[in-house]
Specification:
The protein has about 190 residues and is mainly beta. The protein contains two helices and 14 strands, in the order ββββββββββββαβαβ. The strands form two sheets. It has a seven-stranded mixed sheet, with no helix packed on it. The mean pLDDT is about 90.
């Protein structure tokens, strides 16, 4: 697994849309299937490529919009150990796409720890709430797979608005989408492929 280290924090991609944010003391995992080594579990929604079988998770250390000790909604904020977390809307608008992710059932997460701010967008279209977060993002994990999430051109609009220091594409199977996103977004951010 390739890691990106910023100060005393390491971030890495884990699987299709999973992310690990690790400090020297604890690891916060978002949408990971293999939960080994996770101090806290955050899930954006309950689709199979984002959420493991129930018997694999510890409900007491799980945050999601639908299940876990801490149920979270867009706009909610929570602190887990050294991680300050805010939930952001993530949903499909339905313009030209099937609405697989209805509003209110999924979230993205802005996570602040130590010296960085990470935003995992969840499964979303280009929705107005994303462009109005008002936070400087160091590392943006952005879905680019087109099918029920952003396409590379829509992802570019997010990058141009948020101006993250680094953008890491997630949630894609077709590598041509990855290279399209890299080529269009590179002038506005540093694209890191993991």
């Amino acid at each position: 697994m390739r890691r990106l280290r910023i100060g005393s924090t390491a971030v890495s991609r884990d699987g299709f849309a999973g992310v690990r944010i690790a400090t020297s003391r604890e690891t916060l995992c978002i949408d990971v299937i293999n939960v080994d080594g996770c101090s806290y579990l955050l899930y954006t929604h309950l689709h199979p490529r984002h959420f493991p079988r129930m018997e694999k998770i510890d409900i007491g250390k799980t945050v999601s919009p639908s299940i876990g000790l801490h149920r979270i909604r867009p706009g909610d904020a929570i602190t887990l150990g050294g991680f300050a977390i805010k939930a952001i809307d993530a949903y499909n608008i339905g313009e030209g796409k099937e609405v697989v992710h209805p509003k209110g059932l999924g979230v993205g997460y802005i996570v602040k720890t130590n010296d960085i701010t990470v935003y995992h967008m969840g499964d979303t279209d280009l929705v107005p709430e994303i462009l109005d977060i008002g936070v400087k993002i160091d590392v943006l994990f952005i879905p680019i797979g087109c099918k029920n999430v952003l396409c590379p051109e829509e992802a570019l609009e997010v990058v141009k608005s948020l101006r993250p220091f680094i953008a890491v594409p997630i949630h894609y199977e077709d590598k041509s989408l990855l290279y399209t996103f890299r080529d269009v977004a590179q002038p506005y951010t540093q694209v890191v492929i993991m």
